[in-house]
Give the backbone structure.
Amino acid sequence: MAKLVFSVLMIVVWWMLHALQIDEEVAMQTVHEAKRAVDRAAHAAAQQVDREKLEMGIISIDSDLAAEAAISYLGNNLSLDADQQPLPGSFLRDPVDIIAFEIMNEDVVYPYTYRNLEYDYEVTLDRPGVVLIVHVKYPRLFGVLAPVEWDLKGAAELVF
């Protein structure tokens, strides 16, 4: 009888460890996919040239177009709707929060070092650029892991 109870307990422990391993692996896939989406969104936002200023010889990013591009790219890459809520079939379950979206234009001296002490982020830009910080929650599969959340950071410069 003792061997049977021991075997059942070992199977339960093995299943828990297996569930933990799967949960950790999916969490890492989630953070990598979300980080790529943040990087793509920042890059898309940084490429929105203000054409009126460009005609005057000023290299600048159009703030409205940049915000639209960032939201659009985040939504397309993370399967989100217009309110940043996950669509059916998305690997996320909780809404994505854009906690910082900064555009550095011709009003700063380059090279410019952007610092956000609250989120422990620093990046140096050599030309106009965008900084994007997004808060993502991992939808745990089995509840074995404690809640996992990330503040994913991305930056991109205007390139042409």
